[in-house]
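User: Show me an example of a complex going from sequences to structure tokens.

Assistant: Sure. Here are the input components:
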Amino acid sequence: MADPMKIRATLQGDVADVRVLIAHPMETGQRKDAAGKLVPMHFIQNITAQLNGKTVFDADVSQAVSRNPVFAFKVKGAKAGDKIVITWTDNKGEKRTDETTVRAGS
Amino acid sequence: MRHALVLGLAAAVSWLRASAQAPDPTAAEFDKFREVLEQDNPAELFEVKGAELWRARRGPKNASLEQCDLGLGPGVLKGAYAQLPRYFADVDLVMDAEARIVHCIMTLQGFTYAELAKQPFSSLVRTPEPVSLVTYVAAQSRGMKFASPQNHPKERATYETGKAIFHYRAGAFDFSCASCHGADDKRIRTQPLPNFTKPEQAIRAVQGWPGYRMTGGVMHSLQWRMNDCYRQQRFPEPGYTSETLSALLAYLTVNANGHVYRGPGIKR
Amino acid sequence: MRLESIGALALAALLLASCATPQRDYGPDALAMMKRDFHARGIAGMDRLNEDSVQATCNKYQDNPPEEVAAKLEKEEFTAIKWPADGKLLGDWKAGERIAQNGQGMAWSDKGGVGGSCYNCHQVGPRESSFGTLGPSLYQFAKKRGYGADIQRYAYGKIYNAKAYSLCSQMPRFGHVRALTEQQMKDLTALLMDPASPVNQ
């Protein structure tokens, strides 16, 4: 079972500033371990975001992205209390979904 | 509190930039990367993981850690990290946060010290449970002042023993902790070396730990930092969560008392 | 005043004085704790926790020993320096620069000695800006002091055993503990002393 994400969605006017911290090794397939063996590729290939059930973000991701990456994006037309759901899928077929509620900005 | 964290870290970045040598393109990219990470510190991933582990029933005793007493009563987490190391009557010893968590893992869940000490530090493929747990526990003291107590005679004695250990020169290179951390305005290569014998600088020993190390993307606690210091001091290896390390942490934390802890941080 | 009153007063004064003076020496407790808690690993054995005469003296006097004590031990350390049998102290400064840059060696993660880790603490050559400030700058070392045999000897001796010159120096005793070989120390001496070395430009 993949490790949880940390999602923050803060409202600025009618735009939700969404920041997602993802726990993932993002192995490129180029790294060698201590024994000198190549560590196999293990990276996120796709991330989607839904606002109240509607897909607002669908990104294809490559192994160029770093370990434990941060994804940040903005969504127009959001209100406080809206539900944001993030799902990632990796090249091994592993998936993780987490959600949060949009909060009013301070 | 979050803004203070961002400001504090941003200030640390600009200070580091100012004291670095002539900037090169690689360093500039690294700084940009660090700035993004400062707003969303990957350390938070380990906080979340630690929260899960705290509540999970694990080990031969199939118990959670929710009854663990970190000094403020069983299960009381708010402010506990900032008041460690402290004396614990049940073991008649002064313990730091990770030592106490390991104690709870052993007594409440039934894991053995041998299992926990075998590979206690994070690698690229594994973060040991105590590291996520100490990150979670530390986050519950975010924004609070360090207040490692000196009320019990053993707390005072441990401080003095820690001070003596800090100044003990030995090993192949005749180093003590003070060889690097006992004077003002020194650096090793380009890494600044705070003077931990002084209260206003001792805070830099404990601030930002546990810390997410950008190079390698691993989470490390002070137990790792002390271990790696002794390696570079050309000493033999100190025991994981041993009294020696609790004593050193007592010396450093008490020196830093009164300063605000900003929570798990980011390291180079 | 009666004798007993004077005695009582003196005793009271003594008791008050001992309350006000600093506590006992925690050194022995610290050492006992370390001996219990450390373990050997790789090339780093438990013998490394034992103080030799230099470490014991510097620990006892908190790096500030009385002159006579320091002088005596410095002389002993100096006598123990092994000078090259061929009498030549200068090696290859290019090799010296590589040795100065290398910070590995003598730790439990190493297999033996490797480098001098000079840049950890010192500025050395003019082109390396990543240098530490724990020790003084060595830039223009011979240019400032002279290129003669006496300065060569000083440089080599200092690298071999810095404590022979200043007992409680923080500089490791590279030759004394075999962290560096004779050739490596000659190469480092050349880095500092060779007129062609970038250090002296």
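The lines above are the inputs; the final block is the predicted structure for all three components together. The first strand of chain A starts at residue 6 and ends at 12.
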